[in-house]
Specification:
Elements: H1 3-13, E1 22-24, H2 25-33, H3 39-51, E2 55-60, E3 63-68, H4 70-84, E4 95-100, H5 105-117, E5 121-124, E6 127-131, H6 135-143, E7 149-154, H7 159-169, H8 172-186, H9 195-209, H10 230-243, H11 245-256, E8 266-267, E9 273-275
Helix pairs in contact: 2-3, 2-11, 8-10, 9-10, 9-11
């Protein structure tokens, strides 16, 4: 795990619930050492993240505390909803289509990242699709880019054609395999031997799972294969995330001297609450 990825996972699951969303550098360094990150590396990483606008610093004597910036709060809020809420979508048969025209490579790369995050798939080099009416978000992305485009709604009128579009717009077979691998790797009932081990396991669990929103468009069930492994992977995530909560939180509090006041609510695919501790 990269140090900066660890930092965002720790702040997303723990430090955002400590006071004003801050963590002392010393305590953060002690936590990151559990993952093999040396204090000198932690200082460099946090300094860079501050320079990029993700954190602000507060001084209390010789103690430095890193506090989430407004930009980071927005990122974590968006990520939390995408990672922890997994509810089957209803679908009316409409597709949002984006037809793009010429643009430089940098602009195309930025648009690709933003559209992928919003759940769009690339049907052809210049054609992007997403199920449902996502006109507003699509137009916002394209208007902020330097790429000319047309955005409109369309229907195939044929469920087999819709499934074909889904199969061409996204690598569903590869994504299903990743979900199966995740479930197999984390479906382990053996309890951790210590609070610190619980923290390490829970951070790895969250970090592994939070990659799926970047690749899974959360398609309606009618467009997915019958044996789709996403719900199974999410159920494993919900169960392990809840089981490890108390011990992992105790480790964070002991290493940092902070009090973790809340936790995520995790939702199952049918909308039921799987884990409700905290806000």
């Amino acid at each position: 795990m990269r140090p900066r990825s660890l930092v965002f996972t720790l702040f997303g699951d723990y430090f955002r619930y400590c006071g004003d969303g801050g963590a002392p550098l010393r305590g953060l360094s002690d936590v990151l050492q559990l993952f093999g990150v040396e204090p000198a590396t932690t200082r460099v990483v946090m300094s860079r993240l501050r320079a990029e606008g993700w954190f602000e610093t507060r001084r209390d004597g010789r103690l430095t505390t890193y506090v989430l910036s407004p930009r980071a709060w927005t990122l974590l809020d968006e990520g939390r909803d995408r990672i922890f809420r997994h509810i089957a979508r209803e679908w009316d048969g409409q597709w949002t289509l984006i037809a793009t025209r010429a643009g430089d490579r940098t602009a195309r790369d930025e648009v690709r990242k933003r559209l992928t995050w919003l759940g769009f798939g690339q049907l052809q080099p210049a054609i992007w699709i997403a199920p449902g009416d996502r006109m507003a978000s699509a137009r916002e992305v394209m208007e902020e880019s330097d790429i000319e485009s047309d955005v409109f709604l369309s229907r195939t009128g044929d469920i087999d054609g819709d499934r074909s579009l889904a199969g061409r717009g996204w690598d569903l077979e590869g994504l299903d395999r990743l979900y199966r691998d995740f479930a197999a790797a984390h479906d382990i009932a053996e309890p951790p031997s210590s609070d610190e081990e619980a923290l390490v396991r829970r951070v790895h669990l969250t970090d592994d799972y939070r990659r799926f929103p970047f690749t899974d468009p959360d398609l309606p069930a009618v467009l997915l294969p019958a044996s789709w492994s996403g719900p199974r992977a999410h159920a494993v995530f919900v169960q392990r995330h809840g089981e490890l909560h108390d011990a992992a939180t105790a480790a964070v509090e002991r290493l940092t001297g902070l009090r973790v006041e809340g936790a995520h609510r995790v939702f199952l695919a049918d909308g039921a609450v799987g884990y409700t501790r905290g806000a």
